[in-house]
């Protein structure tokens, strides 16, 4: 896997695709700079080599050129985080930009304007990619969050850098972490799959069945499985059109010797509300009119035990409606169990928007081995797909 560590950037201009698609408040101030922080090691290594950096990214979903989505808004934040005053140019292709790149000296950083001001970016347009390719000597992809998109700056561009293209440290770490779970894993391997719907994670579950020893299923999606096993699930979230598929998954698991663990008890509520009445009931005997919104105490003990026995843990999706404190306990207990196992030497990878949010909310981000920066990209890798942005570098 070619990474920036395989190159010496002295007097070279690195054209780096970063993911600086950060959230901004009403005053256009960055409210969460995690994505900028994540790109810092790559940028610093190139500067320390004596090279310069041309940074390109998208921001939001602009329709054409729009001041609201200008990357100008983040220049000061990037400068503060990297510790170098970043230069900015209000376009991303063309003569003016090429001129600015030519004038760039070692140790300097130039941030280009939003790539998505051009429709050609999302279309993966070859001419646009060729214009971008004039802006650097070596192409570095460090944008995991968009690696599943075949866009001009993430994929098409790579063909213009034969032998001069590589992964940044962030993207390399993402690939390595997923491989630690799916390829070179220490057994037993446990995947925790939670969240609202089975339908959004079917392909992930199918792909990982032969690769893991245990799959813990929680969250709303557990009820489709509980129902197909004959359980009474009250008015819990269920996808009736996915019952057959749930059965198919259970059969696949049995055939490959993978254990699927479902909740045995749940916190049932009489409304989808933080101040609903609640009771603890067996997961397969939920009374009519009640819905399971979190896993129960016996389930927490069982799941924690499985986690403690696991050498490799993957977590994607919450076990309950953790946004409401009364239904957050299962997700908190699971997070703590994963953190404890990690303290004892297990490898843990957390990914997917809501589990990342949960890990941050409960302050566990430093107690797991790796928190992925790309929700959609990570899911597609777990589904066994080759991401176009990754393939383009390896080709
Ligand atoms: P996803 O985006 O598919 O990972 O789902 C995350 C969402 O699932 C969160 O907003 C949770 O509140 C929700 N969720 C988790 N458990 C349940 C449940 N038992 N019933 C309904 N929604 C749930």
DSSP E strands, number = 17
Global shape: elongated
What distance lies between the first and last C-alpha atoms, to the nearest angstrom?
Answer: 11 Å
- The CATH homologous superfamily of the largest domain: Phosphoglycerate kinase, N-terminal domain
The total tally of domains equals 2
- Mean pLDDT metric: 96
Q: What is CATH's topology name of the largest domain?
A: Rossmann fold
**What is the CATH class name of the largest domain?**
Alpha Beta
User: Which residues sit in consecutive blocks of at least 5 with pLDDT less than 50?
Assistant: none
In terms of DSSP E residues, the strand content is: 15-25%
Helical fraction equals 25-40%
Bound molecules: adenosine monophosphate
| CATH-derived architecture of the largest domain | 3-Layer(aba) Sandwich
How large, in whole angstroms, is the Cα Rg? 23 Å
Strand ordering within the main sheet = 3-4-2-1-5-6
Structure overview:
The protein is an alpha/beta fold and 395 residues long. It folds into two domains: 4-170, Rossmann fold (3-Layer(aba) Sandwich), CATH 3.40.50.1260; 185-382, Rossmann fold, CATH 3.40.50.1260. Helices cover 35% and strands 17% of the residues. It is built from 14 helices and 17 strands. The strands form four sheets. A six-stranded parallel β-sheet has the order 3-4-2-1-5-6, with helices on both faces. Strand 16, helix 12 and strand 17 form a beta-alpha-beta unit. Helix 10 (297-308) runs parallel beside helix 11 (329-343). The longest helix is centred in the first third of the chain and has 16 residues, at 34-49. It is elongated and about 70 Å long. The model has no long low-confidence stretch (mean pLDDT 96). Residues 195-197, 200, 219-220, 237, 292-293, 317-318, 320-321, 323, 352, 354 line the site of adenosine monophosphate.
């Amino acid at each position: 896997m070619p990474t920036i560590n395989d190159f010496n950037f002295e007097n070279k201009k690195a054209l780096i695709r970063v993911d600086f698609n950060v959230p901004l408040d009403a005053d256009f101030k960055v409210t969460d700079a995690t994505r900028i922080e994540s790109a810092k090691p790559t940028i610093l290594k190139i500067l320390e080599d004596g090279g310069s950096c041309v940074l390109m990214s998208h921001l939001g979903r602009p329709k054409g050129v729009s001041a609201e989505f200008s990357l100008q808004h983040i220049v000061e934040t990037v400068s503060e985080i990297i510790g170098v005053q970043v230069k900015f140019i209000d376009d991303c292709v063309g003569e003016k930009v090429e001129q600015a790149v030519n004038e760039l000296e070692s140790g300097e950083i130039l941030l280009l304007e939003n790539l998505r001001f051009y429709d050609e970016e999302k279309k993966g347009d070859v001419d646009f990619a060729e214009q971008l390719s004039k802006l650097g000597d070596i192409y570095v992809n460090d944008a995991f969050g968009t690696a599943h998109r075949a866009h001009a700056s993430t994929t098409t561009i790579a063909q213009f850098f034969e032998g001069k293209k590589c992964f940044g440290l962030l993207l390399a770490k993402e690939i390595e972490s997923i491989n630690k779970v799916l390829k070179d894993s220490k057994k037993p391997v446990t995947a925790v799959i939670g969240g609202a719907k089975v339908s959004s994670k079917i392909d992930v579950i199918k792909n990982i069945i032969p690769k893991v020893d245990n799959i813990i299923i929680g969250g709303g999606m557990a009820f489709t499985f509980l129902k197909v096993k004959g359980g009474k699930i009250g008015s819990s979230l269920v996808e009736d059109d996915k019952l057959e598929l749930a059965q198919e998954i259970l059969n696949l698991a049995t055939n490959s010797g993978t254990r699927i663990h479902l909740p045995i008890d749940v916190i049932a509520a009489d409304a989808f509300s933080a101040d609903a009445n609640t009771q603890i009931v067996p997961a397969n005997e939920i009374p009519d009119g009640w819905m399971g919104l979190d896993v129960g105490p016996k389930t927490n003990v069982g799941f924690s035990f499985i986690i403690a026995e696991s050498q490799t843990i993957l977590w994607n999706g919450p076990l309950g409606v953790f946004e409401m404190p009364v239904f957050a306990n299962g997700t908190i207990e699971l997070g703590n169990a994963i953190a404890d196992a990690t303290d004892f030497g297990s490898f843990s990878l957390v990914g997917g928007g809501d589990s990342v949010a949960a890990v941050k909310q409960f302050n566990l981000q430093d107690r797991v081995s790796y928190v992925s920066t790309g929700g959609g990209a990570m899911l597609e890798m777990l589904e066994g797909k080759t991401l176009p942005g990754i393939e383009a570098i390896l080709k």
